[in-house]
Amino acid sequence: MNIKKPLSQIFISKTFTISAFILIIYIIIFTNKILIDGNNIDYIFYFLLALLPLILSVFAILISFTDKEFLKFLKDNPPDSDVSIYDEIILYFKLNVCLNVIGLMWVVFLVFSKYYDKIIFSKPIFQYVTVFIIIYIIMSFIQVLFFIFKFAKTKGQFVDGK
After folding, report:
1. What is the spatial distance between Cα 2 and Cα 48, in angstroms, rounded to a whole number?
2. Closest CA to 88 of 62, 65, 108
3. Which among 53, 93, 98, 110 would be 20 to 30 A from 87, CA to CA?
């Protein structure tokens, strides 16, 4: 699997660009305001914790709708690029799981810091990193949902072509 090309495209993808743009708007609007603090960081942790099983269950559902012939079809028929749809599926879900785990680790760091170092929430960089991670995770999850539609369309083409 040639993962270097799709992996390099993560930073020039629409998801990354939109997340960065929303972060810039957030920074402009909420300059010198602390919205994420020790009181509401727990809610962000719960949100990310709830999102991880959703990502895994979507992946499990997709796997349950595939059979050996369809997997071979996905591996052998790259759509518009040299990367097969199967490789894209694996990459999107690895990316989403990794992003969510990174987000959870970041928020756990912030949760622990609220008990030991109250000063951390007064520094805007921690708030900006948190906002970017959350936006990027949400946008990436939305991208996975659109990818599911692409997967369903490919499954329909496969069934029609059988």
Report:
1. 30
2. 62
3. 53
Model pTM score: 0.78
Measured between alpha carbons, how far is 46 from 38 in angstroms, rounded to an integer?
14
Distance CA 144, CA 141 (A): 5
The per-residue pLDDT for range 27-45, each reduced to its tens digit, is: 888 877 777 777 788 888 8
Q: How many residues make up the chain in this entry?
A: 162
CB 158 within 8 A of CB 70: yes
For residue 2, what pLDDT band results from cuts at 50, 70 and 90?
Answer: very low
Domain boundaries of the chain, sorted by first residue: 40-156
**Cα–Cα nearest to 86, from 55, 52, 56, 59:** 59
